Structure formats: structure tokens, C-alpha cells
Amino acid sequence: MLNQNQTPLLDAIKANAARPHAPFYTPGHKLGEGISQHLADLLGKTVFRADLTELADLDNLFAPQGVIQEAQQLAAEAFGASQTWFLVNGSTCGIEAAILATCGMGDKIILPRNVHSSAIAGLILSGAIPIFLNPEYDPVLDIAHSITPKAVESALKQHPDAKAVLTVYPTYYGVCGDLSAIANITHQYNIPLLVDEAHGAHFAFHPELPTPALAAGADLTVQSIHKVLGAMTQASMLHIQGNRIDCDRISKALQLLQSTSPSYLLLASLDAARQQMALHGKMLMSRTLQLADEAKTRISQIPGLSVLQISSPPSQGGLGGSPGFVALDETRLTVTVSGLGLTGFEADEILDEKFAVTAEFASLQHLTFIISLGNTPADIEQLVQSFTTLAKEYRRTNLTVTSLNWQNILSTQGYALHFSPREAFFALSEILPLAQTSDRICAEIICPYPPGIPLLMPGEVITKPVLDYLQQIQAMGGFISGCSDISLRTLKVVK
Questions:
Q1: Secondary structure of the chain as H, E, C letters
Q2: pTM of the entire structure?
Q3: pLDDT class of 481 with cuts at 50, 70, 90
């Protein structure tokens, strides 16, 4: 057992920041002396003394032998891994590295169609061929859940030469599929199970939270420590266990994807966040779960509103016991507002502008909120009161919100890849007016954001239902990311 009280990297940075010396190394602001006064007024100068580079005492992220190595070993033990890598380019680079380390040009990888855009980037970088699976789907709320063990088993029977399976656990809504069963099936083919656990870094620290991916049998998992724990934005971790993945390939892939000038502020925040959770995680998560339970209980009693719960009937978004929805992260709050005659986009704008309550993201029928260790009882009170007022003063009884049925759009799409994502990304392309792109092959990643799930990707055939869907999302206040033309008047297609 390692001493989880220690923060070796944080301590080394603190010591170097306090050491009197003449700095003739990067960064150029030299311990904050050359920083813009406007920035110093906002952040103070102290933080810039810790904005250091790869000094002798601070180790090297790409060949760690000192304090970074010690910090990563402590993190591996705390999160239940055999080895951990710190990520300063977010979980995006971790997902890309996972694909690069397990798949080469032309290799098949099985993954859900509702993956994050970082997985599509991994396909483009590696040249891997995606075998897409439909996730389980709630047609009432228009929410995609997890892929099922049955779907994975069927795909592996059809593609026994696949090199890996990748899944999302939990989804953006906090829904967890049957990961243990998926791991068992995947391992029967002696290939690794890769998990995008960006929103599940807290699972290891409380028994009332879903089973962590590694404990469920995953070979590799990527966690955004900044999303739900106490690290700075962009600070994440990649964990592995077992021997199905070559550690050297992970390290080499991360050398391609991470900055050669990693932020020691981000690295220090990972070291500190690990110590905080290792020592106080259960207490912090107990308090967070209590706040979430209070919010869900009170909001679910407001007429016209409902809350996503695993025990809810299907008509209210509950699929408890189904293979695509076996557990729910109770710190994630999804409120359905369509009963008020409002879209999620409209409700999001009202809450933000009128009540200073900002959701994680809005979708057609609901708003999703992340309740974390940083929230307070006052936050919950403000959230509940804002919904109480929303229901009383902004209800539209004459408007019916109809689902756009995202799943049907993708089924119509048929996942028709005429080129691999890599081939299409690097192919000669042209930009055409939106109306002229139907039946052409897409050359860019197009996704309603958040949560950043691509509706079109390089290599897929563009269909009219997809174009109609994107325009409806935009008209209702959603944001489309990834396209060269943010107005969505044109799209880039393969020539």
C-alpha cells in the first residue's frame, strides 16, 4: 500500500516555485514577472510561479522516473489500475491513444454509434474501420443509452477479427449498461475492452455509485478527472489493467498526441485531486449524493417536470433492469421539461438568463446537470427554486414537444460508410450548399453539441433526414459543431 497522503508532484512544484533563482527557461513570463497585468488582476501572480516546465526536480511526462512517476503510481492504486498515465490534453487524447494502441490501418473496432467525437478522431488517426452498434434507445425521451451485451456478442460473431471493443460508460446522462457482461464476451475473443469513462471518475469512491469500469472488467478506461472531481479543466487520466494492451504502445501514442510542453498546473491538479479522493472520497461523494437526492426529490414533485431515474417507468425515461440501462449515476440530474410545453433549449435559456442557473447541456426535451463535490446546498436551493418558478410562470399549455427521434435518423443513415473515416478525411473535397449535399459522402465531423456525438462523420453518406434533423436542432436553439461553416448553410463533401 502506498501512502495516499503524499502529493509528490505538487510538493516538488511548490518547492521550485518558492526557490529564489534567476529563471532563464520557459515560459516567457518568468514566474509571473512578465505576465499581463490584466491577467494578474484576475488570477493573482502566485499561480504563475507554479507555471513551470520540465526542470530537473519536476520529472518528464513522457519518460517519468521521478515525481510524475510517483504521482501516477499513487493514482493507479487509488483508481484500481495497474498503470496510470496523466493526460494534459483531456480525455480526447486518451481515447485517441487507446484506439491507436490497439488498432492499425484497416483493423476493425466495435463501438457504439453514439460515441464522442474523440473516438471518430481516433478512427481517422489510426485508419481503423468502425463496426457500429445501435445503443439501446428510449423513444419517449429521445435518449440513447448503452450498447447491450447481445449486440456486442452478435458483432463479434460476425467480425471475429476485430481488434477491440470500445463503449461509453456512463453516458452523458449518467446511464450505465451491463459492462461486466460486455467485458466477459469481449474477453472470450481475447481482445481488450476500451471504455470512455470520461464522466465516471468518481465511481471508485462510493459504494452507492455504479461499479467502476476497471472493477467491471475493462482493460483500459479514460476518465476526465476535471469533469466530476477536483482537477483543472483538461486534466484527465488513462488507466489500464491486465496484459491485453501493450503499455509501450500507449506511451508512444500519447507522445504523438500530448503537448511536449505539458502544463504543470494541470499535472499538479491531478496529483491533488487524487489525494483528495483517496483520503476523503467517500465523505465527499456521500455529501454529493445527498445533494443530488434532495434535488431529484423536490424537482420531481413540481407539476410538469420529471426526473430520469432507473426506477421510472419507460414513459418517464426509466429502463431499469434492461441490458442498456442497469445502473444510473445518481449525481447526474436530467430533468424533462416538455411537460411544461418548453423545449430543453428554451428552458436552458430562461434558467441561465433569468435565474443564473446554468445546466451542463440542453437537448430537445430535457436539461442535464452535473452535481459534484463542488456544489453546495445553496446551489441546490437555487436550482429547485428556479424550476419552481419556471413551472409556474413559463408554462405553455398549447405547445406539444415532439421528439425528433435521433435513433430513427441514424437507422435511416444505416451507418453507410463508403470510405473509412481516415480515407474520407484526407480525400479531395469540395464545399456545397446544404441542399446539394444529399446522397454525397461527408468529409467532416458534424455533431449537435453538447454532448459532442457525431450525427455525420467522414465517409458516411449524407441523407435528407439527417439534414432535416440538423436544421431542426439549429432552429430550436441547438448548436452544431465540427462543420467548417458554423451557419450550416454549406457542408464539405468528398469530390
A1: CCCCCCCHHHHHHHHHHHCCCCCCCCCCCCCCCCCCHHHHHHHCCHHHHCCCCCCHHHCCCCCCCCHHHHHHHHHHHHHCCCEEEEECCHHHHHHHHHHHHHCCCCCEEEEECCCCHHHHHHHHHHCCEEEEECCCEECCCCEECCCCHHHHHHHHHHCCCCCEEEEECCCCCCEECCHHHHHHHHHCCCCCEEEECCCCCCHHHCCCCCCCCCCCCCCEEEECHHHHCCCCCCCEEEEECCCCCCHHHHHHHHHHHCCCCCCHHHHHHHHHHHHHHHHHHHHHHHHHHHHHHHHHHHHHCCCCCEECCCCCCHHHCCCCCECCECEECCCEEEEECHHHCCCHHHHHHHHHHHHCCCCCEECCCEEEEECCCCCCHHHHHHHHHHHHHHHHHCCCCCCCCCCCCHHHHHHHHCCCECCCHHHHHHCCEEEEEHHHCCCCEECCCEEEECCCCCCECCCEECCHHHHHHHHHHHHCCCEEECCCCCCCCEEEEEC
A2: 0.94
A3: confident
